[in-house]
Amino acid sequence: MALASNAIQFDSVGQTYVTDAGPLTALTNINLTIPQHQFVAVLGPSGCGKSTLLRLSAGLLLPSSGQVSVYRTPVTAPRDDVGMVFQQATLLPWASVTDNVLFPARHKRGRVDQKDRDQAAEIIERVGLAGFEARLPHELSGGMQQRVGIARALFLNPDILLMDEPFSALDALTRDAMGFELLKLWQASPKTVLYITHSIPEALLLADRVIVMSARPGRIIADLPVPRGRPRDEDSLRSPEMQDYLAHVRNLLIHRDAA
Amino acid sequence: MSSETEGAMKRDAKTRPAPLPLSERLIRAPGLLPGLTFLAILLIWEGATRAFQVPTYVLPPPSRIAQGFDSVDLARWGQHVWATLRVALMGFATSIIVSLPIAIGLAKSRLMSRAIYPLLVVIQSVPVVAVAPIIVVVLGTDDAPRVVITFLISFFPLVVSMTTGLMATPPELIELSRSLRAPGWREITQIRIPYAIPYFFSGLKISITLSVIGAVVAEFVAAEMGLGYFIQFSTSMFRLPDAWAGLALLVALSLTLFQIINLIQRVFFAWSLPRTSKH
To answer: What's the predicted TM-score (pTM) here?
Structure first.
């Protein structure tokens, strides 16, 4: 696959849900092209259709209008090269860390082999959970649970990682630490990441590019490359250019909310 | 990382706080307080029935009930207990076997849910005690009618708890299953059924005691063996202390079965217990 190819593409995508109160337009006229291995953060008020964007990319939803493509192929069903991380880790409470990470293989193929086990051990090590393989989810902290969630998403080695506010349920300190670890993982093994978040600093810290969406019906109101290059750390956010950028994004979100 | 690891370690560490006050220690001692309460009730019961010279057919004192256990020999008691236990377990097993597919149907299909659920509620609303004689006439006097009566009394809580459990799966896991394009039956066997286990056990605990009730109801109607039969027979012969002894055994049987379900959950599905009861 050519490096310059587009991983995810939205062409005039609209999404309307049928509800008891009548049709509900979640997204209108979304045009978005995400090159391979770009880290894109999506910011927007609650209910602006951010999660819908993610589910359309995953092939869990089909658009009411327009077309979603992954690697230039229209998405009509879930794909193997897409991994998902949810807001809550949503692990299997009866399964150990290892079995939770192995779950995609066991669920998809009905069995796991030694190669799967080796790979699970390697990924568990990579997300910093070595030594916790036999623990059950309730024996882990929230941050560790979400590491298992990430390890599970990485297990089938997807090229595209869809993350739906993955750290929003964690405390602030853990959230920052997890962000940096995610960056490390991403740099060691580049993937196209679509990262939904509520937090502007988090978006600036992690992403190459920030998409700002309006309240319902969700539209893209700004598409901004993050000025600061990599590597980034806590200090990156303090630079004047990043502070200006942060203020700009905040203004966009606040004024759109007020309107 | 380090702070999280510490957090996990801290929870594992057995922290020994200062000695507890007496009341707290009494509360925590397993079986002590309920045992004392039970003993106190027996003593008051014994004292009151003797003091007021209550006739034994109204309320025999516990000492007189204890004599009731001698009314038949041990082997005969064994036969009575076994007869009731057998019917209760067969009815209970039938409930489980029938409830699971119904629950899966109700959880998976709105069509099934709309079509069948009202029928289940109607069946549940029928007073089984009133229908029992009809069932005996239809199905004869062997085990079949007793098992059916037991099943009718015990299956509904199982269906409700299993259905609730099967629907309690986080939607994210169902999305994960769909995104993996796994076969649909694996969504049921690997996600929905294990997720339903805590609910399933709540249902089992209600259902097992109802099964004993069901077996007794069946024995009241048609039986020549069993604790329900023994109680009815003793009462009709005006041997009330014997009937009370049979009742005591029935309670013990029901409690034992309930505790066995509890034990199975504790040993094999410890993760499904409410978190607080583990600490």
So the answer is: 0.78
